[in-house]
Amino acid sequence: MWKMNFSFVLPVLLVLAGCTSTPTIQIAVHNSSELSRENELVAVPLKSLQGMHLGADDSFVILNTAGIQMPYQITYDSLLIIPVTVEAGATVVCHMQRGVPEAFDTVSCGKYYPERLDDIAWENDKAAYRAYGPSLQQKGEKAYGYDVFTKSVNYPVVEKRYRLEMTSKAWVMVDSLREAGNLVKADSVIHSISYHVDHGNGMDCYSVGPTLGGGTSALLADSSIVYPYCYQKYEILDNGPLRFTVRLTYPPLAVKGDTAVVESRLISLDKGSYLNRTVVRYHNLSVSRPVATGIVIHSQHPDGYFWDASNRYIAYADSTDNPQNGNGVIYLGAVFPKPADKLCVQLFSETELQKYPDALGHVLAVSRYMPETLYEYYWGSGWSKAGVKDEHMWEAYLRDYVYRMDHPLQVTIR
């Protein structure tokens, strides 16, 4: 039976108990909360591990209490991240020492796909996502928000999906079959390579269009969403095995009197987490403005949205772009470190409905953004065909995520 993995990347309270020159360092992780923490990533600043006297070329291992090597990753911002399992009220101790680390499977990773209109796509063991790039914007296609790829396996599959979808030989065969009038066989070839079809590991059955998609944020001007378009520049900062991080920078936007507002996003997705951590900053904004995080409401399930102000989340059960095809339900959500000013549904105007009749509006969390500050939130998805069986299970996950944010694991370096 499938067991839900409540894994998170959350803030860590670091307590230094004194670093020494001993060749072994103990990393003690205490769970003072009332919930068991299973495979939760904790982050230790490298500067707190000076007792190891590690040089640039020195390698090290991290051992659990049984002496078995644990996977770890050094992030772009000089953090050592490791997964730990700690029962409620308990403490576990990991040992760091010089040694040759084993090769661990990469789980969280991503890539730039110039062959698919500059997509940036990334994934972990729970889901996959993409942000659209400048080539798509040049085509004039309106797709503002994050896209969601469902997954039903715990290993990377997105690169293979793109490779199948973009295979030139297959499309030459399709064109040849169409020219010969063999449309049935041509459709069969397309079906065999399309990532819109589940080939046993998930698929792309989510529709974005001119909306915020699966959890994008945007400034508001007189309650109207100022949609960000496709990213202009990207920088992949972490690429596994445990964390993927990308920085996206967007073209200048006009927001009322400010004509050159530039948005940057730092997006991280960790092994075991259904949610991406995202930190947004707007440059060249002269006054404070409301910022909204949104999830599009599709016509296939007009009443599928829900929220909880006290537990700081919004959510939506998406019936997918072809619910008659047995694609399951995609559960989307966003949680917030601080309470939002307002949680609400904002429906489209008649003009907006004509642009995208499949969408009805958004469920939004609206907060006040002060110029040059950081806006942080977490967004992501689960799939009914890969473990999240219903909306009650999804809401429980979101509530527990917020609880874990509010009760970080405590790390002591000995």
% residues in beta strands: 35-45%
- Sheet having the most strands: 9 strands, antiparallel
Global morphology:
globular
Radius of gyration equals 22 Å
Describe the model.
The protein is built from 6 helices and 26 strands. By secondary structure, it is mainly beta. Strand 12 and strand 13 form a beta hairpin. The longest helix is centred in the C-terminal third of the chain and has 16 residues, at 391-406. Residues 1-22 have low confidence and may be disordered.
Features:
5-stranded mixed sheet, 414 residues, mainly beta, 6 helices, globular, 9-stranded antiparallel sheet, 26 strands, disordered N terminus
Question: What is this structure, in a nutshell?
Answer:
This protein has 414 residues and is mostly beta strands. Helix content is 14%, strand content 40%.
What's the arrangement of secondary structure elements?
Elements: E1 13-16, E2 24-30, E3 37-45, E4 60-63, E5 73-74, E6 79-86, E7 91-98, E8 109-113, E9 119-123, E10 127-131, H1 134-139, E11 147-150, H2 158-165, H3 168-179, H4 183-193, E12 217-221, E13 224-226, E14 233-239, E15 243-249, E16 253-255, E17 258-270, E18 275-283, E19 289-298, E20 305-308, E21 313-318, E22 330-335, E23 342-347, H5 350-355, E24 359-369, E25 375-383, H6 391-406, E26 410-413
Parallel strand pairs: 1-26
Antiparallel strand pairs: 2-7, 2-26, 3-6, 4-7, 5-6, 8-9, 9-10, 10-11, 12-13, 12-19, 14-15, 15-17, 16-17, 17-18, 18-25, 19-24, 20-21, 21-22, 22-25, 23-24
Helix pairs in contact: 3-4
